[in-house]
């Protein structure tokens, strides 16, 4: 729009300053030389020639509106959103509906990075979460630093700790272990590679609650892959990053929230899981005895309940008029 208004129809001769998106893992010198804030970008725009900086489109963009002078209330503030990326890393451009608003978290303890792709943290550091990965490793940025951080070392600023964890799904999802793990804590499970289990609770810190028969326990999600999928890509992530540490293993953790969300104990998981599986067995039709089958055959046809057909809901009048033919519409119009 602006090159045309300025009398230049060639996009290659654009004189509007370019605001590049940040590149992950670039050097600190490149990050410092980039126009990193909107303030710098707007200042560069206003210093352009008058035919650009005083054009109607530019002035309308910076015009103060009545809503800009009102301070937001609690009901008007929308909670920032981040997107949980799948383990396979595949994404579709159709899923992008708007700008991603990064959520702010705080470090509860010091963390020393174990590789160049990770980022070190000090207690109290405030970071912005770019990607929440199911493995429990979150990609964060802090000023000019970027890297992977264990989610267990972070807590949200605006809500109690671990308030975003989903609810348990006791129906379970079938997964296969792609790497053996020996339990370190009492509430964890030890499994060999290639075992089939069920995931009943996917926690954001990368330690999921799994079920093997009637036994439940924590297990690193990085060592799991959905049944029937290729495990090559999942194993490549294990080589680059191991399982993240658990919150219970962090020493000298300092939270700013007086009360945090209490996690369910493994006894609660086990009781709820056993109750769910027993209820599911009762609902499944079991094998009938020969006597019951004979009684059903001897039952008269008139006494057997007939299945009732499902009656679809009647469409609205507007929908009927929208879907009817043009001939019907003309007849209805003439009748009215």
Automatic annotation (TrEMBL):
<protein>
    <submittedName>
        <fullName>Neutrophil cytosol factor 1 isoform X2</fullName>
    </submittedName>
</protein>
<feature type="compositionally biased region" description="Basic and acidic residues">
    <location>
        <begin position="294"/>
        <end position="306"/>
    </location>
</feature>
<dbReference type="Pfam" id="PF00018">
    <property type="entry name" value="SH3_1"/>
</dbReference>
<dbReference type="InterPro" id="IPR036028">
    <property type="entry name" value="SH3-like_dom_sf"/>
</dbReference>
<dbReference type="InterPro" id="IPR036871">
    <property type="entry name" value="PX_dom_sf"/>
</dbReference>
<dbReference type="Pfam" id="PF00787">
    <property type="entry name" value="PX"/>
</dbReference>
<dbReference type="InterPro" id="IPR001683">
    <property type="entry name" value="PX_dom"/>
</dbReference>
<dbReference type="Pfam" id="PF16621">
    <property type="entry name" value="NCF1_PBR_AIR"/>
</dbReference>
<dbReference type="InterPro" id="IPR035756">
    <property type="entry name" value="NCF1_SH3_1"/>
</dbReference>
<dbReference type="InterPro" id="IPR001655">
    <property type="entry name" value="P47PHOX"/>
</dbReference>
<dbReference type="InterPro" id="IPR035757">
    <property type="entry name" value="NCF1_SH3_2"/>
</dbReference>
<dbReference type="InterPro" id="IPR032136">
    <property type="entry name" value="NCF1_PBR/AIR"/>
</dbReference>
<feature type="domain" description="PX">
    <location>
        <begin position="1"/>
        <end position="69"/>
    </location>
</feature>
<keyword id="KW-0597">Phosphoprotein</keyword>
<dbReference type="InterPro" id="IPR015039">
    <property type="entry name" value="NCF1_C"/>
</dbReference>
<keyword id="KW-0677">Repeat</keyword>
<dbReference type="InterPro" id="IPR051228">
    <property type="entry name" value="NADPH_Oxidase/PX-Domain"/>
</dbReference>
<feature type="region of interest" description="Disordered">
    <location>
        <begin position="234"/>
        <end position="336"/>
    </location>
</feature>
<feature type="domain" description="SH3">
    <location>
        <begin position="100"/>
        <end position="159"/>
    </location>
</feature>
<keyword id="KW-0728">SH3 domain</keyword>
<feature type="compositionally biased region" description="Basic and acidic residues">
    <location>
        <begin position="320"/>
        <end position="329"/>
    </location>
</feature>
<dbReference type="Pfam" id="PF08944">
    <property type="entry name" value="p47_phox_C"/>
</dbReference>
<keyword id="KW-0963">Cytoplasm</keyword>
<feature type="domain" description="SH3">
    <location>
        <begin position="170"/>
        <end position="229"/>
    </location>
</feature>
<dbReference type="InterPro" id="IPR001452">
    <property type="entry name" value="SH3_domain"/>
</dbReference>
<feature type="compositionally biased region" description="Basic residues">
    <location>
        <begin position="254"/>
        <end position="263"/>
    </location>
</feature>
